[in-house]
Design a protein that fits this description.
Helix content: 40-55%
Number of helices: 9
Oligomer: single chain
Structural class: alpha+beta
Radius of gyration: 18 Å
Distance between the termini: 28 Å
Strand order of the largest sheet: 1-3-2-4-5
């Protein structure tokens, strides 16, 4: 599973564990996951590196999506806009731009004018951003991420891979994708300290989960 130099990353680059996340800026569940992952990185300094990958969930750029949904109508453009900021300003403006896109209400259309105004808020000039936004290399980066996601079997957003192993949310799926692999998930949580980072009490605080746990449903 490739981690490219230009991928947007959070946490310690030398961390022993890497979480790769395929997501969409117009996805409410992706927004929630982004917030939770940010907390995990902050509470486990030096333990976890997070790599953000684009997987806009709309057929205008992602052929794996067969039925367009209004919610994702501007997903491809949002991903392209974020990649344009990264290509020009580097990691810090790109991270702030990503935060602002996730904060946008789901019913906000995010037309090109809105996207360029948000770019201005992170210090990127209008003309430069517009040129990058329309450029082939920026579009190609989105297509590369989508192609990698499809190769890995990504069919929904967000999708997570921890140290090369696919997770369903923050759980590891068993042979039956509808059921948590309790032993492996508990071991993972203990190894990363996810249980303590997430808070709570009792078994969950010690990194353990109940052993007939169904996979959490996406909203």
């Amino acid at each position: 599973m490739a981690v490219r130099e230009e991928d947007l990353t959070y946490g310690d680059p030398a961390a022993p564990h890497t979480l790769i996340v395929f997501s969409d800026f117009r996805c409410g569940y992706c927004r929630q996951a982004h917030e939770v992952i940010g907390e995990l990185v902050a509470r486990m300094p030096g333990r976890l590196r997070v790599v953000a990958k684009h997987f806009p969930f709309h057929p205008s750029c992602n052929a794996s999506v067969l039925v367009p949904r209004d919610q994702y109508a501007r997903s491809c453009q949002a991903a392209q806009a974020a990649e344009a900021v990264r290509s020009m300003g580097g990691a810090q403006p790109a991270k702030r731009y990503a935060e602002l896109l996730f904060e946008a209400p789901e019913d906000e259309p995010l037309d090109d004018e809105r996207l360029v105004l948000v770019a201005g808020r992170v210090g990127v000039g209008r003309a430069e951003w517009q040129a990058a936004y329309a450029s082939g290399p920026v579009r190609d980066r989105i297509i590369e991420d989508i192609a990698e996601g499809r190769r890995l079997g990504v069919e929904a957003v967000p999708t997570f891979f921890l140290d090369g192993r696919r997770l369903e949310d923050i759980f590891i799926a068993g042979a039956d994708a509808e059921v948590v692999d309790c032993v492996k998930t508990s071991s993972l949580w203990r190894r990363l300290g996810v249980g303590q980072a997430a808070g709570g009490s009792g078994a969950a605080q010690n990194g353990d989960i109940g052993c007939a746990s169904p996979m959490p449903a996406r909203p």
